[in-house]
Amino acid sequence: MTTLVIPAAASASPLRQRLIADMTMRRFSAETQRNYLRDVGRLASFLGRSPDTSSAEDLRRFQIAQQEAGLGVPTMNAIVSALRFFFVQTIDRPDLARKLVRLRYPPSLPDVLSPDEVRRLLGATVCLKHLAALSVAYGAGLRASEVATLKVGDVDSTRMLLRVERGKGGRDRNAMLSADLLALLREWWVEGHRQGILHREGWLFPGESWARPISTRQIHRIVVEAARAAEIPKRVGPHTLRHSFATHLLEDGVDIRVIQVLLGHAKLDTTALYAKVATRTVRAVVSPLDRLALFHHEEASPG
After folding, report:
1. What mean pLDDT do residues 186-202 have?
2. If 0-12 CB within 10 Å is exposed, 13-18 middle and 19+ buried, where does residue 219 land?
3. Is 105 considered catalytic here?
4. For the chain, which domains are there?
5. Of the listed 16, 242, 243, 248, which one is catalytic?
6. Tyr recombinase domain spans which residues (predicted)?
7. pLDDT tens for residues 238-254?
8. Which member of 129, 168, 243, 248 is catalytic?
9. Is 274 a catalytic residue?
10. Among 255, 249, 219, 214, which Cα is nearest to 237's?
């Protein structure tokens, strides 16, 4: 990971610590903090000096260089988000933040698995822990980072909810917990407790040590390997399961505003993207042309 480069003693830089404190105060997730440090570090590396000495011309040259290096639009926009936070919140230079250009681009439609493909993928997992983790991603529509940071105590079997703490944007929310998922998690609890890796105050999906959670990178690897074993040709990652969760709910007639709450989306526009990939919903609509019955011919009577 690229750290925030400050020429003198970068690792203990007061500027870096201030940025971390600002992000922590706003309850940014660990992953978001890592990304912001990396992206502010890009600017520091480009300048060869502390990023708080940037000028408007420096930022212009930096963004041009990033584009010429072939960075995609989503990556460049993510860098803009990190730098805007740094300039506005950490060093109080909103004038510089306004010089950063966010690029427009048409969002691509997400890959979605069919219910049968999800069934095959889950069936191709190699152990109960992997099955339970991927089942939470699909069955509750959680992000990989949210699956990784679940604790045993976040499973609320009384209210049939999963408590998601500090999700994207630092927001807490409740996710759905189905009866089948609860049964699977109970099975995993028995097995994990027997192995000595699950504790009531610990992580629901520990990593190599019971004291640390599984990494998002490992979750990604689990999904990719399961998809390969299930012979699913689509490009599949952990977020594919979340996309599939939302799309399947929409196809089953669940109100899109309910799906928005379950996913933890701040804006309905983000959730509305799934309407474009809900093929069963599209097929269920009767075309106005069909209602005209122009091309319906009565079959000739026999004999």
Report:
1. 93
2. buried
3. no
4. 10-97 (1.10.150.130), 115-284 (1.10.443.10)
5. 242
6. 108-287
7. 999 998 988 888 888 88
8. 168
9. yes
10. 219
